[in-house]
Amino acid sequence: MSGETLEFQAEARQLLQLMVHSIYSNKDVFLRELISNASDALDKLRLASMRDKDLDVDTSDLHIAIEVDQDARTLTVRDNGIGMTRDEVVQVIGTIAKSGTAELLRKLRETTDAETSQELIGQFGVGFYAAFMVADRVVLVTRQAGEADGTHWESSGEGTYTIAPATDVPQGTAVTLHLKPVDSEDNLHDYAAEWTIRQIVKRYSDFIAHPIRMAVERPGSDDSESTTEVQTLNSMKALWARPRDEVEPAEYHEFYKHVSHDWADPLEVVHMRGEGTFEYEALLFLPTHAPLDLFSPQGRRGVQLYVKRVFIMDDCEALMPGYLRFVKGVVDAHDLSLNISRELLQQDRQIQVVRRRLVKKVLATVKDLKANQPEKYRTFWTEFGAVVKEGLIDDTENRDSLLEILSVASTHDPAEPTDLTGYVNRMKDGQSEIYYATGENRTTIENSPHMEAFRAKGFEVLLLTDPVDEVWVERVGEYDGKTLRSVAKGQVDLDTDEERSAAEAERERQRTEYADLLTWLGSALADQVREVRLSARLTTSPACVVGDAHDVTPTLEKMYRAMGH
Ligand code: ADP
Ligand code: MG
């Protein structure tokens, strides 16, 4: 056997260090992570065998086995799933491809607070590496379905791992943990004990759709030997198929962690069922935290598709529009073909109907949070508002609902964002438009000369700081019959009729007085500006540059430039 010692990628090494010297107090979750991976591997094998008729594999007894060796103090999680090739092991175990890793590590370095570190790890989720919280050596032996030879991988989590070819390996993956000594102060339980394993599986993995088996000793009676029997530890009930009032919140939470790979509890659960022509069940979740790859093009969508309890695909973009890409969960559609492809799915009538209902339900859920659980709504909007607003650009069907759940910063109250209804209710007599200003941040906008006249008049201005804001305000155009008007564009008319005629007379006087100056400025700046005119919008600044009503704004210009236009 020709083994090799390789180094973990730098990010992986740092993350492993954190796991080895465990900053995460709930060590039990390592088993949830290993079982979750095993379950994914079984789903992948079933799919592969359905897609590829030439793949010669036995899928009749897909299961997960937990094996304990008391004397050696090892715990093995074995599956007969898809397995990995040598290259895959190097790729996915030796490196972390997850976007946001560098960002996470930077944040972790910046904090000295244990609780914050835990929370960060929890938001990120470390998957397989969690094994190093409870083991000082981890051995992974795997053989990919369809391949003849396997791979042996081993590491103590300290910077390097060894990898070697292996023969006589059963198909699938076995992860063996050489357990650290029990240390109750450090929350290291006896993970070789049947009772501990049972508890953890029940608590975190009960809904896993494949059997999780373990051989247990049954003491004999006086005259018989003790016997071992193999038991299935999980109920395997599909959570989404159970009636809502029979599911405990904790069960929803653990299920969420399995589908999302998140370690934190979800913010809200949406459990629905569609009857009639198209039958389906959906169990969706709003996360508590935005994932670090929310704005990365490789960022994945979170809804899995099942057909009658059979896993069909991850990351089903046909079920959720891009602006709800952070929603996680499962949709089980009863009447689809098991072989449906991604491409066909996009055009499938049934899927389109389901998607419309899911979107409406998610938006209704947010609306409900806004009305009844403002704290949760605020968390939601802080984390996901910038993404949800993308929906205002294209999803005309749900535009009204989106405008209802929207909130934005405003000059009305520095601490409290407002919704559009709130703004309209506070509009002054004679004010007919909704004013907004865009910019990089609140301070920049507030210091901009464009704001002066509005401040002087006491008009409220919405302060929009997300790049997407520029686009949706243009696209939406108005709310409740009132035009959305940028403070930086075109002629802004802030006065009542009386004030206007007085101001007009004054302006006329000024125009005569300053005519020479304006002409001179106009020709001196001819290359830079279209026109120099006297303005009523400034109260303290001497001059400002304004765009035409249809010009792109500076922020948008910046955004386009960043996108390479
Ligand atoms: P995640 O599950 O979020 O992708 P993990 O760290 O848990 O992250 O696992 C990393 C990758 O390793 C998985 O995506 C998968 O490709 C591979 N992997 C882990 N465990 C197994 C397994 N039991 N069988 C096959 N592949 C596995
Ligand atoms: Mg995982």
Strand content: 15-25%
Mean pLDDT: 89
Query: Quaternary state, please?
Result: single chain
* Sequence stretches where pLDDT stays below 50 over 5 or more residues: none
Biggest beta sheet attributes: 9 strands, mixed
Strand segment tally: 19
Overall structural class, as computed from helix and strand content, comes to alpha+beta
Query: How would you write the strand order of the largest sheet?
Result: 1-6-5-4-7-3-2-8-9
Sum up the overall morphology in one term.
elongated
Provide the helix percentage: 25-40%
Number of helices: 18
**Between the first and last Cα atoms, what is the distance in angstroms?**
55 Å
Q: Bound small molecules, which ones? A: adenosine-5'-diphosphate, magnesium ion
Work out the radius of gyration. 30 Å
Question: Would you give an account of this structure?
Answer:
This is Chaperone protein HtpG. Residues 343-558 are annotated as: B. With 565 residues, this protein is α+β, with helices and mostly antiparallel strands. The chain contains 18 helices and 19 strands. The chain has helices spanning 10-20, 29-51, 86-94, 101-110, 114-124, 194-205, 249-260, 342-347, 349-372, 374-388, 391-394, 399-405, 420-426, 442-447, 452-457, 467-476, 497-524, 554-562; strands at 4-7, 64-69, 74-79, 135-143, 150-155, 160-166, 172-179, 212-218, 227-232, 268-274, 280-286, 302-307, 310-313, 328-333, 409-410, 434-438, 462-464, 478-479, 482-486. The strands form 3 sheets. Strands 1-6-5-4-7-3-2-8-9 form a 9-stranded mixed beta sheet. A 5-stranded mixed beta sheet has the order 10-11-14-12-13. A 5-stranded mixed beta sheet has the order 15-17-16-19-18. Helix 4 runs antiparallel to helix 5. The longest helix has 28 residues, at 497-524. It is elongated, with a radius of gyration of 30 Å. The mean pLDDT is 89. It binds adenosine-5'-diphosphate (ADP) and magnesium ion. Magnesium ion is lined by residues 33, 36-37, 127, 261.
